[in-house]
Structures are given as C-alpha cells and as structure tokens.
Amino acid sequence: MRSASAAELPARAGRAARALGLGLGLCLSLAANGCSSEPPHPGPDSALQVDIDVLAEGTVIRNTDGSMWQGPARLVPEATIGSTDGPSELMFGRIADFEVTAEHIYVLEAQPPLVRKYDHDGNWIADLGGRGQGPGQFEWPAGLAVDATQEQVYVQHREPWRLARVSTNGGRPGTLEVELPAAEADMVLTPAGLARAVVLERAEGRFERSIALEWLPLDTLDPTRVPLEGAGLSAIWTATCDGGGAIAIPIPFAPEVQWLLFRHGGYALGRSDEYRFVIHSADGSTRTVHRYWTPVLASAAEREWRTRLARSGASCGGGASPWNGPDAPASKRAFDSLFSDGAGRIWVVREGNGQPLGDCATAGEPLSEWRQRPCWEAPVLVDIFDEEGRFLGPLNLPDGLRLHPRPAAKGDRILAVTLDAGGNPNLTWYRLQRPTASP
C-alpha cells in the first residue's frame, strides 16, 4: 500500500464528506432487510456473515450477523509498569499519551511534563524533554508521535500550540517553528508527515465544530489541510448568558462525527447517528463499513441528569448556565469514538444501557461531587474490526482499564493505562484472548 502524496490529499478530501453519504445508497441496496437497525439474528456468537458490494464510489462491507471470533474476546493481564512506592521513574502523575515502538515504550507525562522512555519489560531508560519554553521543552503536552528511525519524539504542546522535538538518544532538541491550530490530542506519524485532526470552532447561533485532517511534512513544515465540509457538525449548543456573551454546552447523546488516523496514512470517519464508518486508504480507495445494531435507549430521567451534568460544567459569570437548546435524543449514539490500536484493528467504543445509582449528587452541589457521585452509570462497550472492515467481535474490558489515552498493541499484546485501587495510573500489558470457538 503506497502512501498519499501532498498533491493527492485534497482529492481524497473531496471524497471524504461524500463517502459519509453512502448510507442512502446502502439503505436502498438492503431491499430484503430494509433499513431496520434490528439484526436479522441476535449476537456475535456465530460465524460472520458479511456482504461486500464493489461500487463505483467505493466498496461497501455489511456485517449482517455473527463475528469472526464467534464470541467476545477478553484481555488477560500479564505485567504492570508503574508503582506508587517505588523509584520516581516508575511513579506516574497523569499520562497524557504513550506510544509503543518495536523496542521501546514512550510515555508522555502531563504532571510533571516530560517523556519517559522504557523497554517493553518496563525498565526505565531515560527521561526526555521537560517543563519549559525552550527547545525540546513543553508546559501543556497534548500528544506525542515517535519517529523511531530518526530517533526523534514530537510532542504537541498547547497554549500556544506548537511542536517540540526531543531526541531519544541525547541529540540536540528543538522546537518546530510552525503555527498550529487547536487539535485533538491524537497525533500519529505517517509517510506524509505528522497527522492530526484539527478542530475549528465558530459561533453563529451555535458552536459548529468543523474538522480538518492535517498532514505536516517534517522537512517543509508546510501543512496540507483536508477540510471535511458537511461532516463536521458537532453536538454543541450555544447558551446565551444574561448580560451578553455565550457558552458552549454539549448536547448529551447527540450524534457527532468521529474519526481515527492510521500510521500508514489513511483515516476513518463516521457520524454516530448510525453504525457506519468509512475507511479511507492511503491509495484513495474507500470502504464503507456497516454493522446492524439495536439503538440503546436513554430514559427521560437519564437524559435529564446528563443534561444537568453538561450544564454544571459551564457557567455564566459564576452562576448556573441557562439552557435554551434542544432536548437530548431518546437514543444514544451508535458509537462514541473510533481508534486504531496500531496492530491492524479498529476499536469502536459505545455506551450501553444506563442504570440509576442511589446516593448521588443533587442540584446545588459542586461539580466535583457530580463527578464522584453520579446519578447514572452505563457500561462501556467495545467492538473490534479489522482494517478491511470485517467485524472481529466484541471485547470485554477489565476493571480499571482506561480508553483515554487509547491503548496500543504489538500483535496480540495490548498496552493500556489502568488505575489502581487508589486511582493512581499505571501501564498494563494484556494478552488478547479470543474465544475458544474462534477459528
């Protein structure tokens, strides 16, 4: 698979938003089943049934029943990196991001700000970079990417947004002098340069979050930006404050555009009002992936509490924020996020059925109490696909595993941030264990 050149990226961009519109043609092609979200057969425990159509605008993959694993997989813990009472280089404060290369693990710490380098067994090798505004330093790290071949680590720094370059072998650090717009935390190194998802906001009665994918060649620092027109509307409402001004409040459960970036230069996009996303390969081809699903309903009580929680995080001059926006939808998003684990698998993260809790925070209590004593909780569900768009199966997550920052894999070994009983972060190696019936 070849990588896309800078000249090819705008052409791919023009297809990105159009590919999200393949759903209409997809529904029309499902004459036998209509557009119902109900699966023809329940569960993923049978062999995968998949229909593939090769159309002029791209390939469509319909996962209609079953899964390749024929059941849920699980993660079996193997080793933990980190300690609350050991040497300082094994005590993590707040892990902002991490990356696994063929030989090493690079951990971006936000507190204190630095990059820690380990081998795969968790043996500390070096601390790189650090707090400051000088070359190779950063104050508010938001993401990292590693160029193992050139022995360089790139740290995305916010406020102001810039890139710090840190050598992994003691070489001279530097700061790349390029103006960066705000972006999501994820940043990956591709053959076309550093790839980021740039988020642009503008207020016109609503806050609209327009998304642009950006490739920044490290030799020229001249970014190629791919605006995804028509695909970037996010679920954020502008509430007008008394006395003027406005604040942005997210609308619970409202559909949003989600994306992921591949290291080979491709990306995937999907709008979460239906279980469908489009894989854009580096050669310009597309695969629209669809899976039948049953929408998860949210009760009126759960919707009301989630709206209050969203409002509690914003205020107008210290007072409670107003709300004149739309009601939260009656069903939850088809998925909340997409990411690649770096080993040829796509993780689709969803929210399950909500359950009410007993002793929970009420109106008038501080936001910290709302976070610690929620009134509702819902399980996190993960579906795994391969990069061809075939449904591998669901993945049962162990207690304490965090999906932010996203896990990374080397084959069937998966490294993820975990929290111990005291809420302290560590890194844990897991082994992906497929069901015994898996071929």
Percent strand equals 35-45%
Radius of gyration: 22 Å
Classified in CATH, the superfamily is TolB, C-terminal domain
CATH architecture: 6 Propeller
Assembly type: single chain
What is the domain tally? 1
Note the main sheet: 9 strands, mixed
Which class in CATH terms? Mainly Beta
Average pLDDT figure? 81
Say how many strands there are: 33
Poorly predicted tracts of residues: 1-39
Q: Helical percent range?
A: under 10%
User: How would the global form be characterised?
Assistant: globular
| Fold-level CATH name | Neuraminidase
Topology (SSEs and partners):
Elements: H1 8-20, H2 22-29, E1 49-55, E2 58-65, E3 73-81, E4 94-100, E5 104-111, E6 113-119, E7 124-128, E8 141-147, E9 152-157, E10 162-167, E11 174-176, E12 183-190, E13 193-203, E14 207-216, E15 224-227, E16 236-240, E17 246-250, E18 257-261, E19 267-271, E20 276-280, E21 286-291, H3 300-312, E22 315-316, E23 319-320, E24 337-340, E25 345-351, E26 355-356, H4 367-372, E27 376-377, E28 380-386, E29 391-396, E30 401-402, E31 408-410, E32 413-419, E33 425-433
Parallel strand pairs: 2-21, 3-29
Antiparallel strand pairs: 1-2, 3-33, 4-5, 5-6, 6-7, 8-9, 9-10, 10-11, 12-13, 13-14, 14-15, 16-17, 18-19, 19-20, 20-21, 22-23, 24-25, 25-28, 26-27, 28-29, 30-32, 31-32, 32-33
